[in-house]
C-alpha cells in the first residue's frame, strides 16, 4: 500500500548499535506491525542500543506514537535502549505536542 511504513535494519560496525530506518506513513494501519517488529529486533539482537531513524516518516498519528513507546518499553525490558534519531517535521511536532522528547532520547 503506498505510503505505508517500511522498516530496514543495519548493525553498526562495532556491533553495539542496531539501526532501524522507518519511512512512509506510520498510523493505525501499520503501528502494531512496526511495534512488534522493533520489539522483536531488540530482543533478538546482541546490540545494546536500537536507534530508530524517523527522518523519512511522512505522517505519524497518536496510535503509532503509542506503539513506539510500547516498543521502547519492550526494548528496555530486554536491556536495549531505544532512541529516535533525526525526526521528520511531522514526528518532531507529535513528540513536542505530547512531551515525549526525553522518553525517546531527544533533547527538547
From TrEMBL:
One MF annotation (Gene Ontology) recorded for this entry: anti-sigma factor antagonist activity
InterPro entries named in the record: Anti-sigma_ant, MlaB-like_STAS, STAS_dom, STAS_dom_sf
Coiled coil, from the record: none
Ranges for domain STAS: 22-108
Highest rank taxon of the organism: Bacteria
Family: Belongs to the anti-sigma-factor antagonist family.
Family annotation (PANTHER family): ANTI-SIGMA FACTOR ANTAGONIST TM_1081-RELATED, ANTI-SIGMA FACTOR ANTAGONIST TM_1081-RELATED-RELATED
Name of the protein in question: Anti-sigma factor antagonist
Organism listed in the record: Actinoplanes missouriensis (strain ATCC 14538 / DSM 43046 / CBS 188.64 / JCM 3121 / NBRC 102363 / NCIMB 12654 / NRRL B-3342 / UNCC 431)
